[in-house]
Amino acid sequence: MEVDKLQGLIEDLFSLKVITIVKANMTATSMPNMATALCDIATEYGAKLHALTSRKPERALNGEASLAAFEELERMAAEHIHARAASSKGTEEEEGLFMLARIRDNAQQLKAIFRGKEPELVLDRAKAEELSDEQMKLTDKQKVMIRKTWELGTEEVALQTVIYLDGDVITRLQPRYYLEQDKQALIQIHNRSVETSITFWGNLVKLAETFVATLLGGKV
Q: Which of 36, 66, 110, 158 gives 122 a disulfide partner, CB atoms 3.0 to 4.6 angstroms apart?
């Protein structure tokens, strides 16, 4: 168990990702319990897939989170990507395909949470709200995946920076947020977020060193 924790800790600290999102309105609500978050994700993905493709993933649109619901989302998104990728024209269509790719890839990962559950786990919002995180029997990695997926949802990412422990830094930004002068404030906000995250990351690395030393019964 301690070895698994150590491995997970090292993997989590290998890279740092900072994302800046532009959103006109927001509810600023706290994340619900994990089961309810899964229902939220399925519903939001279903609505977005329907808006982009006119296809209806019935399970997700009915608020269901289950192996079948995320399989349906993955399959429909993949089919549309395959059908439209070759004929994609224009930035708007390209952005839609990238969003569908996010839905496809995340749905594929979320399926693992439901696979192998006995009896088969099928959640609606009413049932989900009654389930504690302990009852869901999720691993730490699964909890992190759900939280990140719920937070990002189907939002448009304006800027993203990924920093690796070996020193590589990758920054992606949409051209319109770089070329337009009135959007420079957004870049400054993103840069401050990166600086804050690096400081926090450094503190986590120090804590990890202490944790490793404790597990090994000595000094690092």
A: 66
